[in-house]
Amino acid sequence: MCGIVGYIGKQEAYPIIIKGLQRLEYRGYDSAGVAILDGDLKMFKKKGKVSDLEASVKGLNTSGNVGIGHTRWATHGPPNDVNAHPHYSHNQRLAIIHNGIIENYSTLKSALENLGHTFISDTDTEVLVHVIEEFQKRDGLKLEEAVRKALKRVIGAYAIVVVDKEDPNKLVAARKASPLVIGLGKDEFFIASDATPIIEYTNRVIYLQDEEIAIIHHNSLEIINIENEVQDPEIHELEMKLEALEKGGYDSFMLKEIYQQPDTIADGMRGRINVEEGWIKLGGINEFQERIKKAKRLIIVACGTSWHAGLIGEYLVEDLARLPVEVEYASEFRYRNPVINEDDVVIALSQSGETADTLAALELAKDKGALIYGIVNVVGSSIARLTHAGSYIHAGPEIGVASTKAFTGQLTLLTLLAMRIAQLRDSVDKEFLGKLMKELVNIPDKIRQVLELNEKVRYIASEIQDSPNAIYLGRGYNFPVALEGALKLKEISYIHAEGYPAAEMKHGPIALIDEKMPVVVLANNTNNYDKVVSNIQEVKARKGIVIAIVNEGDTEIKKIADYTIEIPATMDELAPFLSVIPLQLLSYHIAIMRGCNVDQPRNLAKSVTVE
Ligand code: G6P
C-alpha cells in the first residue's frame, strides 16, 4: 500500500523516481509527490496519477541527485495535493515519505501543538516528520539520530525515507511492519517499497528488517537498529526479469495476467510433481513432514482473493487428506482470541506476502507454537521471511490490482499440498491420486482452451454490461469460485455482485431475482449437477438471466440457460481452475465496456499493508 521510491547517486534523481513511481502505481494511485535536494529542497505534489504529477511539473526545475517520491493510497485524510506525500517538517528543513499508519499520531500531534507546531495536512505522516524535527532541534542531533529517537516514540507501522536540506548528501530510511528494499548500485542506491522499481538498475538488494534504520550516502550504506547497534545486512540477488513488469503487448496487466495462467500454473508445478513416478515434492515442507503428517488441524489465514483460494484449499485437504481445516479471514482471526495449539499447522495464503492482517495472524500463531507455512508469490516478502516453511507460487509479478494468476497459482500449490499430505497420511486411494496428478498436469492446456472462448465471453459481457447487480452461484468446489467471480466484478466494474452457495439462494437472494438480474451459475462440476440444474430452474422461474459455465457437450443446461460457456471437463477437485477463467474474462470485458481502469480500480490497492 503506497509506493515509496528514493534515489541517491550521480544521476538525475527525478526521472528515476518518476519511473519508479509508475512501476509502483499498482500499490496506490490517488496522489503522488516528489522532493528533490539540490542545495534547496524542492517539492512537487499532485492529486491523481503519477502522470498528473508529471504534467504539473513540466517545465519546472527538477534537477538534483538526491530525491524521494511517493504514490499514495489514502488512510488519514482525503486524496488531495496537500495530503499527498512528501511532507515537510514545520521548519521546512526535512521532507518525509511514509507508508503505514502512526497509531498514536493524535497524542503526538497534541504534544507538538503545545510546542507551537501547526499542521497543514490531515496526515499522520506530517506529525512524524514534525517529531523528527523536534528531536533534531532540541538535541542538535544528526538526521539519523533524530529519526531513531522519533521512531522510539511511535506506535504503528512505517516504512519511511527522510531527507534534510542541511545535510543534503544523505537519505535516512527505516521500516517496521511495512516493507522497504534497498538496491545497491555503483556509487548509487535505490530505495523502494518493493523491488519492482529497482530491478532495471541492479539485482543486488537488501531487505531492511523491522526497526532497522539505513543511513545512505551515494558511496556508503550503514544500517543500525533502533537501539543504535550496527547491523550486518544480507545481500540478496533478485531473479525477477524486467519484461515481467511490462504489459508485453496486452492492453492491461490484468489481461496479460489472465493469459499467463497456463504458464504460471506450469511454473508453480515445475519440479514438484512427477506423474510417472508418482511423487510430489514441496521442498518447503521436507523438514516438517512428520509434524504436518501428525497435525490435528490445519488453519488457513488469508484476505480477499487469497481467502477464496483458501476455501478451495479446505475442500481439497479435507477431501483428500481427511485432515480438519478451518479457513479464517486474517483480520478476524488475529483479534478474536482463537484457539491455536502446537499441533496445528497454520497456512498463510498471500500474493504480496505483505498483507498486514495476514502477517499479524501468522505472528500470533507462531507465538502460540503452531507450525506456520506460507504460500506466497513475492519472493523475499515479509510473510515468506516470517514462516517456518513455505512454497512460492512462482507466478511472477502480479501488477493488476484484481488478482488472477496468483489465485490459480495458490490453487496449484494447495492442490499439490493436499495431495502430498494425503500421501503422507495414506488417506486416499493411490490409483485415484495418480489420476488426479495426471489431470492437474493437464490443467494448463485446458486453460488454454478456455481462453479461446474469449470472444464468446466478450459477447455475453456486452449483453449484461449495464446491469447494476449480479449474482454468482456454485456448489461444492465451485462455491468459492462464485465468491471470487462476484469479487472480480465488484472490484473492477463497480457493479454490485454477490456470490452464494447455489442452494443458499433460496434463503434470501432469490428475492432479488427478476428479468433484469444476471445470474452466473457454475455447473462444470459433476457432483451436484442435478441440484444445480434445479437451482437454474428456480432462477428461470423468476425470469432471471442465466449465464451458465458448463462442460463441453452439456445438453440439459443449454436448454434452459440464456447463455452457456462450454469449457473442457475435468475432475471436480480441479473444476475451479477452469471455471474461474471465464469469470475473470467476464468481469474484465464488462469493466472495459463501462470505461473502468481494470488495472487500477478506484479505492483499491494491491498490497494492503495497513489493517
Ligand atoms: C488486496 C488485493 C487483493 C488481494 C488481497 C489480499 O485487497 O487488492 O487482490 O486478494 O489484498 O492480498 P494478498 O497479497 O495477501 O494475497
Description:
This protein is α/β, with parallel strands linked by helices. The chain has 3 domains: 242 residues, 4-Layer Sandwich (Glutamine Phosphoribosylpyrophosphate, subunit 1, domain 1); 196 residues, Rossmann fold (3-Layer(aba) Sandwich); 140 residues, Rossmann fold (3-Layer(aba) Sandwich), CATH 3.40.50.10490. 37% of the residues lie in helices and 23% in strands. Helix 6 packs parallel to helix 12, helix 6 packs antiparallel against helix 13 and helix 8 packs parallel to helix 12. The relative contact order is 0.09.
Q: Any idea of the CATH topology of the largest domain?
A: Glutamine Phosphoribosylpyrophosphate, subunit 1, domain 1
Estimated helix fraction: 25-40%
Spatial strand order of the main sheet: 3-2-4-1-10-9-11-14
Let me know the average pLDDT: 94
Q: Return the structural class.
A: alpha/beta
Bound molecules: 6-O-phosphono-alpha-D-glucopyranose
The CATH C-level class name of the largest domain: Alpha Beta
**What is the molecular shape?**
globular
CATH superfamily of the largest domain: Aminohydrolase, N-terminal nucleophile (Ntn) domain
CATH architecture name of the largest domain: 4-Layer Sandwich
Low-pLDDT regions: none
For the report, how would you describe the main beta sheet?
A: 8 strands, antiparallel
